[in-house]
Design a protein that fits this description.
The chain has 376 residues and is of the alpha+beta class. The chain has eleven helices and six strands. Strands 1-2-3-4-5-6 form a six-stranded antiparallel beta sheet, covered by helices on one side. Strand 1 and strand 2 form a beta hairpin. The N and C termini lie close together (10 Å).
């Protein structure tokens, strides 16, 4: 088995000098991938638009042109999300058709192993994964943020560009808790909206609740406006026009703690994680999503390996359809288990690096093991 794995590694040396068979397999895989991707995304986008069209047109000043704007913002997300699934369907279709037409038998008769047949498909999948990663980091994250901003404004027309803002931020200030409904940054100025401070004693019992309509951080100082101070012991409320807020909370923490990982690119996400780690905060959620930015595109390469079950075997036995269904079931299982491990990683039940990479590695090894067994 080990000698066979080593010998198969030499197949990758032929990538820079592909044969006509390599080109043929890569071409039919790429063409079918493109057709299935366009068809699936078009169908899903049409159904999504039908469900959202009434809500979009109900926005203030909305017109039918806004439907096209919604499509432009929604389509990048659908492409990034369903690209690995399309690779699975394409791999199963390509290898099954080759099997039905006995092309697999002919290719093997020419001296090609099962693994050698899969390599051109994996090379194309690697190219697709690279494009998907670049597309997600340059287009999809910005489209998601802009769409969320538009949805937050009830699909009104002529809204300002999406601000550098986050929502529902909770931070700790020593024993105290601070909640802000939103945090917006404009250069060196940070604006917090609807601030609530829970002042606690050394036993963590709440003694005061301070609410402010908004707060501004400027020139290294915080100032709160529209302040109400509720004393829990006396049940009295003091109303202040403004209040100087003395706190040890770094301003950037409000933005960092509430950042949405799939709406920012990788460099910004890494900076946020590093900053929160320096301050002693848990970053399991952000770490898991950072690794997932790599795993999600790379799962495209996994799909030809899983599809090997549908390719290698005699279709005359009548089991081809069963093998195709089993392959699709295994592919769906990967997506389900991957999402399960993401949730476990985000809640800290599993280390983020294991939660992100383990499903990909396990299913990859399973696919390689099956292909190697077909050579027995």
């Amino acid at each position: 088995m080990i000698e066979r794995v080593i010998s198969y590694g030499g197949h990758f040396g032929k990538i820079l000098n592909p044969s006509s068979m390599d080109v043929y397999l890569a071409k039919i895989f790429a063409v079918r991938y493109t057709i299935i991707l366009v068809g699936l995304i078009s169908t899903l986008q049409m159904l999504d638009l039908l469900a959202k069209s009434e809500e979009i047109l109900a926005g203030k000043g909305a017109s039918y042109a806004d439907l096209w704007s919604y499509v432009k913002l929604r389509t990048p997300h659908l492409i990034s999300l369903f690209s690995p699934f399309v690779a699975l369907l394409t791999s199963v279709l390509t290898l099954s058709v080759l099997n039905v037409h006995s092309e697999i038998v002919v290719i093997k008769a020419a001296g090609w192993s099962a693994f050698r047949i899969i390599i051109p498909l994996m090379i194309v999948s690697l190219f697709i994964a690279t494009l998907n990663f670049v597309f997600s980091e340059t287009v999809t994250v910005h489209a998601r943020a802009e769409l969320r901003n538009w949805e937050g404004n009830n699909f009104d027309a002529d809204i300002p560009p999406a601000p550098n803002a986050v929502y529902d931020t909770w931070v700790t200030d020593g024993q105290n808790l601070v909640k802000a409904e939103s945090a917006n940054r404009n250069g060196s100025i940070l604006l917090l909206d609807q601030i609530t401070q829970y002042i606690r004693d050394k036993d963590k019992n709440i003694t005061n609740i301070i609410k402010a309509d908004f707060g501004i951080y400027r020139n290294n100082n915080w100032k709160l406006y529209g302040v109400k101070n509720f004393d829990v012991d006396t049940l009295e409320i003091r109303i202040l026009e403004n209040l100087d807020w003395v706190t040890t909370i770094p301003p950037e923490r409000f933005i960092s703690l509430a950042i949405v990982a799939d709406q920012v690119n990788l460099p910004r996400l890494r900076r946020t994680i590093e900053q929160l780690k320096l301050e002693g905060h848990s970053t399991d959620t952000l770490d898991t999503m950072m690794y997932q930015k790599f795993v999600s595109p790379l799962s495209t390469i996994l799909m030809p390996l899983l599809a090997g079950l549908a390719a290698f075997g005699l279709h005359r036995s009548g089991n081809l359809l069963i093998r195709i269904l089993i392959t699709l079931l295994i592919g769906f299982s990967f997506f389900v288990i991957n999402n399960l491990f993401i949730a476990l990683g985000q809640y800290g039940a599993v280390p983020p690096i294991i939660a992100a990479w383990l499903p990909l590695l396990l299913f990859g090894l399973a696919g390689i093991s099956f292909i190697l067994q077909t050579e027995e």
